[in-house]
Automatic annotation (TrEMBL):
Keyword Phosphoprotein: yes
Domain FHA, chain residue ranges per copy: 17-74
Keywords: Phosphoprotein
Pfam name, any one: FHA
Source organism, top-level taxon: Bacteria
Protein name: FHA domain-containing protein
Record Gene3D superfamilies: 2.60.200.20
Species assigned in the record: Streptomyces musisoli
InterPro entries: FHA_dom, SMAD_FHA_dom_sf
């Protein structure tokens, strides 16, 4: 689950959610990101694996304003493991806090 400013986005186990402003590419997230000009139309994906691990990946071509996890800049197309309490930032103005993921190590999603 991502939480910010009273809004949240659930990413159930075994699913992938796309983060971006495009309603066709990121239907769940675009509902609250559509007006965020610093977020790319196709920004990043979040995978919540069946074993409870969660991973964020910036789109392969890169997002215009970048993606960060706890101030660490992501490399496009390289998954980064998320933990409870991590802060994910999409560009300079949009950030989310991660909640509800398992702490056990697991390999990156396929």
């Amino acid at each position: 689950m991502f939480r910010t400013g009273g809004r949240h986005l659930d990413v159930p186990r075994g699913t992938e959610v796309r983060l971006g402003r495009s309603g066709s590419w990121a239907p769940e997230a675009s509902a609250f990101l559509a007006d965020e000009e610093t977020v790319s139309a196709r920004h990043a994906t979040v995978v919540h694996t069946a074993d409870g691990a969660a991973w964020v990946t910036e789109v392969p071509q890169g997002a215009t304003n970048g993606t960060r996890v706890n101030d660490r800049v992501l490399v496009p197309d390289r998954a980064v493991r998320l933990r409870n309490g991590d802060r994910v930032e999409l560009g300079p103005r949009v950030g989310f806090v991660v909640r509800g993921v398992e702490d056990e190590p697991a390999g990156p999603p396929d």
